[in-house]
Amino acid sequence: MKFNLKIWRQKNAQAAGKMVDYTIENINADMSFLEMMDVLNEQLIRKGDEPVAFDHDCREGICGMCSMHINGRPHGPLRGTTTCQLYMRNFTDGETIFIEPFRANSFPIIRDLVVDRSAFDRIMQVGGFVSVNTGQVQDANNIPVNKADADLAMDAASCIGCGACVAACKNASASLFVSAKISQYALLPQGRIEAQERVLAMVNQMDEEGFGSCTNTGACEAECPKGISLTNIARMNREYYVASIS
Amino acid sequence: MSVLDSKIPEGSLENIWSDYKSHVKLVNPSNKRKLEVIVVGTGLAGASAAASLAELGYKVKAYCYQDSPRRAHSIAAQGGINAAKNYKNDGDSVFRLFYDTIKGGDFRAREANVYRLAEVSASIIDQCVAQGVPFAREYGGLLDNRSFGGAQVSRTFYARGQTGQQLLLGAYSALSRQIGLGNVEMFSRHEMVELVNIDGKTRGIIARDLKTGKLERHFGHAVVLATGGYGNVFFLSTNAMGCNVTAAWKAHKKGAFFANPCYTQIHPTCIPVSGDYQSKLTLMSESLRNDGRVWVPKKQGDKRKAIDIPEEERDYYLERKYPSFGNLAPRDIASRAAKEACDDGRGVGESGLAVYLDFADAIKRLGKEVVEARYGNLFDMYKHITNEDPYKLPMRIYPAVHYTMGGLWVDYNLMTTVKGLYATGECNFSDHGANRLGASALMQGLADGYFVLPYTIGDYLSGEIFTKSISTDHPAFVEAEKAANDRIEKLLSVNGNRTVDDFHRELGKIMWDYCGMARTAEGLIKAKGLLSQLREDFWKDVKVTGSANELNIDLEKAGRVADFIELGELMVNDALQRNESCGGHFRVEYQDEGEAKRNDDEYAYVSAWEHKGVGHEAQLHKEALVFENIKLATRSYK
User: Fold this and answer.
1) What DSSP designation does B303 have?
2) How far is A40 from chain B (nearest CA, A)?
3) Distance in angstroms (rounded) separating the CA atoms of residues B461 and B56
4) How far is the C-alpha of B4 from the C-alpha of B6, rounded, in Å?
């Protein structure tokens, strides 16, 4: 297979970036998208050019590090799929592929396709936890959890923190990410005790980081590689209102 | 007399750890505030240690090469975590978990360490549940368990096929809380590139800020390495792309002995290699072997489709050879059996390097819904990668490098041979012997970080309360930074013709061919020559683009591959000296009809290697393994 690639190149946070054209040939359909990028980079290095910097690590769709905007969509054309799980058979031979970084003010570009998502960490640091120190806990089965709630909590906890929801949102809202964490804890008895402080702190930090507001377009859910549900945002809002008036 | 002192306390096995905890030296709260601890790596072992130490009051600095501590590769563990809770009332106990782990490791691990691991395993589950980790539950609201390879009880706790993710996010949440409270200073996108020792004690690290390329000096009264394993020495493995040995290797070169480097785990159920462009391999959780049946055609070269091969022409070789454990035979045994079948010309798929993992019976017995609830995400993952539907066709699987049992040598306190330098989790060698059982890596990482190190580190730090923070202008810091800088300059100045990946691929091929699933003295000797040549070629002919003072992915990789090549040489030496087969180390010369043949009289020891300079033979030290509570036996799963 052969592809025309248009890739965002930007030396560093300060430099101006631009789209650069590359052509790549002899690509096997069973190659993953990132392996295609590896091939491109090795070709660039052989020519003495600098490779395209991009974030990636586990390459099995769970670490949340890969983050490309492909043909205008975070993580590319397939539903429920991270960039690292895309295969070239998902594209057409001869196609032109646009590859850009996730775009959001709260995710500043570091280089090429690499963006800074540390805002997510800072949101977690103000409340994304149960305040329990090591060793001061009871037997695990003393905290029974209704299976339905446990399953819903697990659905929410499946979030990989990649930031596709922000990149997909016209407002660059982080609501899906934040609500997934809020929901996980809100649904479990362990998390109820701090539920009010948590939701207030995390929503406040989300605003501080400059993420936009949620206007319920649902783009985040549509693009989320883990299928995190919009109902989490509804749950977060409910938690937030309750906490605000009590 | 060996220079290795494992510092295992005297006493009966059941009481060693509780006695230790009652008598270990403590540090009072006001002194803890003055003591700084560096933790490198934020996977299960690192994040849990950093959080727990900060909770105790130490000043902690944590480092990871990823953009966030939440991304460490522990996150990819699928199947579960073992704990001797006996919630299933099926006869489990601390002793059984201990025994299974020792036996699973082919009697090449320390009794006292493994017993402690089994002992604290139950507390890990308590801790994680309290943190809000959403483990699988039964309808009554209590925790569910599944069974795993190498055990006859159900003691594995799980969160769908994403147990590692959930446990890591639990540890990450505890770490985040401590960062928020100001007790941990977090350095993401930082890579440790040198260790700093002063007067025989570790006092800090040199880290490279991967965003800016700047080298930074960081002081700590103690340094904890929780930097994972070195499976990527094989180029293709189930490790994340960034997993590397660099931090551990720098420590090794600064005096920390490296133990059992040849013990590598080849996991039996991975998606087979499909082409030479392949960058990594993907694991399919061992939990699949609970319900999936492994088979190959009885006939050699049988190219029929799986569904066209009738039942009587299939060889369910694990069930045939190991009737009491069947498809749940331990990993090393299952992997070797798959290799044997393929070597025998009965492998399936285009390459012939694969066996079937078949769910047809399970779907018939349980229904598709139940199978989907148990393994849905794994089936989806398989389909993504192979474009085949495992609900209809059997999966094709083949062994792949997955975990490294070897690592930095540590004593009972988890301290390396350098004072003040600790190693935890996969980075150390301590608990899995020559083969790790499934669902035990998560257990060990969290045991070390939550429940062992926070106690044992006090023993050392209580002696450091009068040590003031050492200025990073100290000559040892200056010198270490210069060494790191020189190396970077050197990598950038070679300007040869071959890419870093090119070298890495060649390294991987040498290691897989000669130091992989089957090893021979002849092959290992050949590999030694090839590796030293590869090392020389690397430094003459590698091409690294860009500069030192920027985010440079090519340079990062180059430094890691250079270290992997040196490690490869040590692994080969270790495999060569161990004239026996045990666990993941299979020497073709030493076998009983395909089963590993141990030699307890001569090789019941830990090999611990002392670095003597690049290109020089490392010196071997031996720590004898003493078994007082169990009888050494031929490991049988028949």
Assistant:
1) -
2) 12
3) 13
4) 6
Residues B580, B556 within the same domain:
yes
From the list B289, B331, B396, B598, the catalytic residue is B331
Total number of domains in chain B = 2
Question: Could you tell me the residue ranges of all domains in chain A?
Answer: 3-111, 118-245
Q: What is the DSSP letter of B137?
A: B
List the structure tokens of B298: 């009885």
Q: How far apart are the first and last CA of chain A?
A: 61
Residue B592 class from Cβ within 10 Å (0-12 exposed, 13-18 middle, 19+ buried)?
Answer: exposed
> Phi first, then psi: what are they for B36, rounded to 5°?
-110, 135
Work out the percent of chain B whose per-residue pLDDT is above 70: 100
pLDDT reported for residue A100: 98
Among candidate residues B343, B371, B402, the one where a domain is terminated: B402
Domain end position, chosen among B348, B374, B402: B402
Q: Tell me, yes or no, whether B132 and B252 share the same domain.
A: yes
Q: How far is B137 from chain A (nearest CA, A)?
A: 6
| Interface-testing mutation among A54, A121, A131, with chain B (most B C-beta atoms within 10 A) | A121
Of how many residues is chain B composed? 638
Give domain status of residue B20, yes or no. no
* Tens-place pLDDT, residues B402-412: 999 999 999 99
Q: Which domain holds residue B595?
A: 27-263+405-638
- Interface residue A208 vs chain B (CB under 8 A): no
pLDDT at B1 over 50: no
Asked if the Cβ–Cβ distance from A57 to B242 is below 8 Å, we say yes
* CB–CB contact A134 B48 (8 Å): yes
- Please indicate, yes or no, whether residues B504 and B522 belong to a single structural domain of this protein: yes
Give me B411's structure tokens. 């004593």
Residue contact B499–A111, C-beta within 8 A? no
Looking at the DSSP assignment, which residues form a beta bridge with residue B209?
A: B190
pLDDT of B89: 96
CATH 3.10.20.30 fits A3-111, yes or no: yes
B109 to chain A, closest Cα gap in Å: 27
> What would the mean pLDDT of B505-519 be, rounded to a whole number?
96
Phi and psi angles of residue B148, each rounded to the nearest 5 degrees, phi first: -145, 170
- Which of A33, A41, A58 is the best mutation test for B, with the most CBs of B within 10 A? A58
| Rounded Cα distance, B44 and B444, in Å | 9
Q: Does A243 touch chain B (CB under 8 A)?
A: no
Q: What is the count of residue pairs from A and B with beta carbons less than 8 Å apart?
A: 217
Q: Locate B378 and state its tokens.
A: 């794994």
Which residues have CB under 8 Å from B267's CB, separation 6+? B238, B283, B286, B331, B335, B399, B400, B401, B402, B403
Q: Do B482 and B629 sit in the same domain of this protein?
A: yes
Q: In chain A, what's the furthest Cα-to-Cα distance?
A: 64
Tokens of B507: 């390294």
B365 is catalytic: no
Å between A101 CA and nearest CA of chain B: 15
Tokens at B406, concatenated: 């070897």
User: Which CATH number does the domain housing residue B322 bear?
Assistant: 3.90.700.10
CB contact under 8 A, A150 and B173: no
Judge residue A47's burial from the number of C-beta atoms within 10 Å of its C-beta, 0-12 exposed, 13-18 middle, 19 or more buried: exposed
Contact call for A157 and B166, based on CB within 8 A? yes
Say what the ipTM of the complex is. Answer: 0.98
> Token pair of B504, please?
């890495």
CB contacts of A90 in chain B (<8 Å) are none
| CATH no. for A118-245 | 1.10.1060.10
Q: What residues of chain A, 111 to 140, have a C-beta less than 8 Å from chain B?
A: 111, 114, 116-118, 120-121, 124-126, 128-135, 137-140
**Kind of pairing, strands B222-225 and B421-423?**
parallel
Q: Is residue B8 part of a domain?
A: no
* B499/A45 CB distance under 8 A: yes
pTM, entire model: 0.97
